[in-house]
């Protein structure tokens, strides 16, 4: 299905927060992005917005340790959540992440949905499945995205996606294959996001 990618007129960093008192209070619809450390989350957000460095990418997994809010077109907000599952992050910080993210996901009224980013090259990890199942149990809107698609031979993409769909308990057509390198999946992902962020007139 083809989708008109929205024109991004403005995209700006708003704030970083670790608790509700630090969240923006503008009332705009929010889309959160979650994934394992180093899965390509920052690159995906930048590609969606047509920006090179709005969200900082790092070769060091686990660098994002706060909820980072970005206002887009003065109409909606993207929220970059801390990556999970990286063993070298100090344990005391990892322990803080779960409650911080859970509090945001369960209490934020502006949250319209979440993009759950995983790696097409590998089956969803135990951490991936734990988050996905938690999202489903709480009735949160979420779209599974398998990134780094350009690194998987075309003959293996469908089998990899089918394996992920079985583990996640969704139809393979519900999964978006994405590549920050080739821009594959940009329109398909926007098609899933637009209903979340378009406010009624």
TrEMBL record:
Any GO BP: division septum assembly
UniProtKB keywords: Cell cycle, Cell division, GTP-binding, Magnesium, Metal-binding, Nucleotide-binding, Septation
One Gene Ontology cellular component annotation held by this UniProt entry: cytosol
Keyword RNA-binding: no
Protein name from the UniProt record: Probable GTP-binding protein EngB
PANTHER family assigned to the protein according to its UniProt record, in alphabetical order: ENGB-TYPE G DOMAIN-CONTAINING PROTEIN, MSS1/TRME-RELATED GTP-BINDING PROTEIN
Family statement: Belongs to the TRAFAC class TrmE-Era-EngA-EngB-Septin-like GTPase superfamily. EngB GTPase family.
UniProt-listed PROSITE patterns: G_ENGB (PS51706)
One Pfam family hit: MMR_HSR1
Gene that produces this protein: engB
Cofactor: Mg(2+)
InterPro entries named among the record's database cross-references: G_ENGB_dom (IPR030393), GTP-bd (IPR006073), GTP-bd_ribosome_bio_YsxC (IPR019987), P-loop_NTPase (IPR027417)
Biological function: Necessary for normal cell division and for the maintenance of normal septation.
MF terms (GO), sorted A to Z: GTP binding; metal ion binding
Organism domain of life: Bacteria
Species of origin: Desulfosoma caldarium
Domain spans labelled EngB-type G: 27-199
Alphabetized SUPFAM superfamilies for the sequence: P-loop containing nucleoside triphosphate hydrolases
Keyword Transmembrane (UniProt): no
Gene3D superfamilies: P-loop containing nucleotide triphosphate hydrolases
């Amino acid at each position: 299905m083809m989708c008109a990618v929205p024109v991004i007129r403005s995209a700006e960093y708003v704030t970083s927060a670790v608790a509700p008192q630090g969240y923006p209070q503008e009332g705009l619809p929010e889309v959160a992005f979650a994934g394992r450390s180093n899965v390509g989350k920052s690159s995906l957000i930048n590609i969606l917005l047509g920006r090179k460095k709005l969200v900082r990418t790092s070769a060091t997994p686990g660098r994002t340790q706060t909820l980072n809010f970005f206002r887009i077109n003065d109409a909606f907000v993207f929220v970059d959540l801390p990556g999970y599952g990286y063993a070298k992050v100090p344990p005391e910080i990892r322990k803080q992440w779960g409650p911080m993210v859970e509090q945001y996901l369960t209490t934020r009224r502006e949250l319209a949905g979440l993009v759950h980013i995983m790696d097409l090259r590998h089956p969803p990890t135990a951490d991936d499945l734990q988050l996905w199942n938690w999202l489903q149990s709480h009735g949160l809107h979420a779209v599974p995205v398998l990134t780094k698609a350009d690194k998987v031979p075309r003959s293996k993409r469908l089998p990899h996606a089918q394996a992920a769909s079985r583990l996640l308990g969704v139809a393979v057509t519900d999964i978006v294959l994405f590549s920050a390198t080739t821009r594959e999946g940009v329109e398909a992902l926007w098609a899933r996001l637009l209903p979340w962020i378009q406010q009624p007139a």
